[in-house]
Amino acid sequence: MRVSLKDVALRAGVSIKTVSNVVNDYQHVTPAMRARVQQAIDELGYRPNVTARHLRNGRTGIIALALPELGNPYFAELASAVIDAAAGHDYIVLLDHTGGRREQEMLVSQGFRALVIDGLILSPLELADEDLSGRTEQVPLVLLGERHYDLPYDHIAIDNVAAARAAVRHLLDLGRREVAFLGAQPRRNRPAELRVRGWREELAAAGLDAGEGLVAATDGWGHEDGARAMARLLDAGRRPDAVFASNDLIAIGAMRVLSERGLRVPEDVAVAGFDDVVEGRYGAVTLTSVSPDKAAIARMAVASVLDRLDGADRPARRQTAGLTLIERESTRGRAARG
């Protein structure tokens, strides 16, 4: 049978209210009394009924997380980080897959799950200001991603331009002078646009070519997209000595084609990606990559939802998570083991 507060109170010889104060970390409990109750909790194996606690507060204990691509390792790793962050506050996470489609993003943002969730964390690709400006749903909404919104919603982002510039600067510091960009997606994918911009700015600052001949667009974000883009670039007669890809999967696909064409990574072509997904750390050639702080993004997003649930009356804020360039074998050679 489930151990109750009453059982703990009887074992500790205190009132049920005292046990409740300890369980809920009420500060005005003496250390001796807290230790006494905690001992009874440990002996009986008591576990708080989190669901009942949420219901008493008029909540469900569920946060929804809506992402465009659950099959993409970056979003899968981000989802795991959000689940961990929410668990730290006794919340569970309901995952929604939007496919980056406007109609699905609209459906999610307008609250079709409003009766079962306390808050929504949404990473949109297609929604514009006008799509969200008329939102009447009262469930707190926190936005992820790089599209700029002039709306009263908290927003968690990363600095894609600065990150791209750091990756390209790393390639230039290694002596590379013809750096291609793989994964441009004009008018569709805001992060890709910003990463192209960072690539252009850093090459321009170095007085190097940032022409369209070195840019290869992709329809998606997967290995096959990177492979096709790399093949098109080579077939067009361009032989860059470095590649910066808009994500790791595109970079890995590109490295496969380079190997098939007899080009060595990094000796002939250095390759850097973006997202620092696990797969890139365990290939035959480990991948240099920009690593967003996924755990920080998750913590900020969950904290923002809970802050709004607790009635925070403040202007919407845009927070920026940190980034690190992790140098590995695809640019540094076998000496790099990061």
Automatic annotation (TrEMBL):
One of its GO terms (molecular function) is DNA-binding transcription factor activity. CDD domains: HTH_LacI, PBP1_LacI_sugar_binding-like. Residues 3-57 form the HTH lacI-type domain. PROSITE patterns: HTH_LACI_1 (PS00356), HTH_LACI_2 (PS50932). Signal peptide: none annotated. Keywords: DNA-binding, Transcription, Transcription regulation. InterPro entries: HTH_LacI, LacI/GalR-like_sensor, Lambda_DNA-bd_dom_sf, Peripla_BP_I. PANTHER family: LACI-RELATED TRANSCRIPTIONAL REPRESSOR, LACTOSE OPERON REPRESSOR. This is LacI family transcriptional regulator. It comes from Streptomyces solincola. The lineage of its organism: Bacteria, Bacillati, Actinomycetota, Actinomycetes, Kitasatosporales.
